[in-house]
């Protein structure tokens, strides 16, 4: 099974979730496009050392939106021609939010629509995140991209979770930022496992 890790915004916990997921479910890891250093693959290698990590689809040095890095670095690639590695169980981490540009023409969600795999949508608690969550969920649903779950990173905020879950009617998972031991508690592991069967 191939699964995307997408997000409502940049810096909400995609790579952290990816490390936890790969460590607990034995998935291989692939970063579609990397912009800047240190790389997300390096974080995965450090925190989930048993995970098989494929070479990034595209690697840019500029810590900015990929379409900016592409222009500044004179990189030659086309977003929808980035090849995915062969793997029976592959976690594909995207960059930024779902409308972050991949190149001058296409965004992350355009890639997701072209190569349809389900996604975990990653979010974090901050003022304005409900708007970003609902907008992202609507966009994914409009393009018929299956959302396995909304993953809320950080300390649980029950009132926000209740509103979002009632509004979207999609599964919601709370995941704390695990710093040392990435092994999930049995209940949470079973909850996630049921979504990927």
TrEMBL record:
The entry sums up its family as follows: Belongs to the dethiobiotin synthetase family.
- What reaction does this catalyse? (7R,8S)-7,8-diammoniononanoate + CO2 + ATP = (4R,5S)-dethiobiotin + ADP + phosphate + 3 H(+); (7R,8S)-8-amino-7-(carboxyamino)nonanoate + ATP = (4R,5S)-dethiobiotin + ADP + phosphate + H(+)
What is the scientific name of the source organism?
Answer: Campylobacter cuniculorum DSM 23162 = LMG 24588
Keywords of the record, alphabetical order, are: ATP-binding, Biotin biosynthesis, Cytoplasm, Ligase, Magnesium, Metal-binding, Nucleotide-binding
Claim: NADP is one of the keywords in the record: no
- According to UniProt, the name of this protein is ATP-dependent dethiobiotin synthetase BioD
BP GO terms, sorted? biotin biosynthetic process
* Main subcellular localisation: cytoplasm
Catalytic residues, chain numbering: 31
Q: Which CDD domains match?
A: DTBS
EC number(s) stated in the UniProt entry for this protein: 6.3.3.3
Instruction: Mark the transmembrane ranges.
Output: none
Assembly, per entry: Homodimer.
Which pathway does it take part in? Answer: Cofactor biosynthesis; biotin biosynthesis; biotin from 7,8-diaminononanoate: step 1/2
Q: Where does Mg(2+) bind?
A: 15, 40, 93
Q: Please tell me one Gene Ontology term that the record gives under cellular component.
A: cytosol
Q: Which cofactor does it need?
A: Mg(2+)
The GO molecular function terms of this record are: ATP binding; dethiobiotin synthase activity; magnesium ion binding
The protein's role, per its UniProt record: Catalyzes a mechanistically unusual reaction, the ATP-dependent insertion of CO2 between the N7 and N8 nitrogen atoms of 7,8-diaminopelargonic acid (DAPA, also called 7,8-diammoniononanoate) to form a ureido ring.
Give the gene symbol.
Answer: bioD
Tell where it localizes: Cytoplasm
Q: Does the keyword Methyltransferase apply?
A: no
Q: Which domain of life is it from?
A: Bacteria
Q: Which residues bind ATP?
A: 11-16, 40, 93-96, 176-178
């Amino acid at each position: 099974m191939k699964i995307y890790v997408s997000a409502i915004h940049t810096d909400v916990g995609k790579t952290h979730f990816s490390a936890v997921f790969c460590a607990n479910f034995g998935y291989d890891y692939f970063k579609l496009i990397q912009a800047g250093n240190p790389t997300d693959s390096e974080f995965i290698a450090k925190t989930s050392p048993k995970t098989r990590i494929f070479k990034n689809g595209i690697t840019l040095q500029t810590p900015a939106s990929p379409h900016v890095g592409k222009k500044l670095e004179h990189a030659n690639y086309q977003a929808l021609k980035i090849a995915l590695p062969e793997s029976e169980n592959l976690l594909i981490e995207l960059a930024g939010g779902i409308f972050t540009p991949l190149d001058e023409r296409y965004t992350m969600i355009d890639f997701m629509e072209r190569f349809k795999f389900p996604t975990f949508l990653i979010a974090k608690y901050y003022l304005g995140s409900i708007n970003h969550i609902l907008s992202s969920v609507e966009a994914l649903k409009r393009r018929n991209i299956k959302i396995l779950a909304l993953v809320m990173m950080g300390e649980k905020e029950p009132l926000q979770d209740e509103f979002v879950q009632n509004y979207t009617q999609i599964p919601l998972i709370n995941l704390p930022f695990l710093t040392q031991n990435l092994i999930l508690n049995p209940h949470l592991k079973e909850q996630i496992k049921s979504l990927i069967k």
